[in-house]
Amino acid sequence: MQNSMNTPSYYAILPSDVRYDANLSSSEKLLYAELTALCSKHGYCWASNSYFSELYNVNKNTVSSWVSSLVKRGYIQISVDRSKGNLRKVYLKKHVGIPKKIDTYTEKPEHNNKKNNKKNTNNNKDAIASDEIMELWNKIFKNSSVPMVNSIRNSRLRSLKVRVKENPDIAFWEDYFARVKSSDFLSGRASDWRATIDWVLSPTNMDKVLDGNYDDAKEEYKNPEVELEKLKAYNERMGTNYKTIEEFREAVK
């Protein structure tokens, strides 16, 4: 029944207020566009998180976070229809009609607002940069214990913009993330703790990683700072309270 009720229109629409909303990720904007197609006939649809999960090949929890963001931003409304077995209804709060015929506009606009065009271009560059970083992170840390990234916005986006301005080459980020992954401590292979994208975007932590503080020891020498952080993670996991590496080694002899 769900497939017949959720057959989308051929067209999807992405209004400018959604398109340029800096608080929404590109995936959330895509989901809204998909909803305009599904809701084009009645102004609502029955599509579940499972439906979108299969459609975009992502986890249902990821879809749930996208939906929650659209609700918080006031673009959609959710209701539950108990008469239909508690099926979820998704409404567009600002209904966008889907025209039967859309003509393609190929000419250059007569009224070209250069200031607005420049502003929108800058916004698009930021969006592309954040999407590239997110995709690169999820690609490098796929099948690892390091948490995946579902969105980059708010304080995380602000931190990323500063770091990207300092290191604009995508090759830097490939090497940086690969170095984090190669560290047993940062990737969670040495303890239950592992780095998150917010941790690696911290300028202090970035300097430590680039200085090699978290590189795995290739010889007998072990970096004291890294060893103390490992000891802290061990104490938290085991409920112990060892103050120094020497105290720990003496206890486990």
Describe the fold and architecture.
The protein has 2 domains: 2-92, Arc Repressor Mutant, subunit A (Orthogonal Bundle); 115-216, no CATH class. 51% of the residues lie in helices and 6% in strands. It has helices at residues 2-5, 16-19, 26-38, 49-56, 60-72, 114-140, 154-166, 170-182, 197-201, 203-210, 224-238, 245-251; strands spanning 44-45, 76-81, 87-92. It has a 3-stranded antiparallel β-sheet, covered by helices on one side. The longest helix is centred in the middle third of the chain and has 27 residues, at 114-140. It starts with a helix and ends with a helix. Mean pLDDT is 79; it is low at 1-5, 95-111 and 119-128.
Rg over C-alpha atoms, rounded to the nearest angstrom: 24 Å
Please list the strands of the largest sheet in the order they lie side by side: 1-3-2
Mean pLDDT: 79
Q: Sheet bearing the most strands, described?
A: 3 strands, antiparallel
Compute the number of strand runs. Answer: 3
- Give the count of helical stretches: 12
User: What share of the residues does DSSP label as strand, in percent?
Assistant: 5-15%
Terminal residue distance? 65 Å
Outline type? elongated
Helix content range: 40-55%
Contiguous uncertain segments of 5+ residues:
1-5, 95-111, 119-128
What order do the helices and strands follow?
HHHEHHEEHHHHHHH
Class per helix and strand makeup: mainly alpha
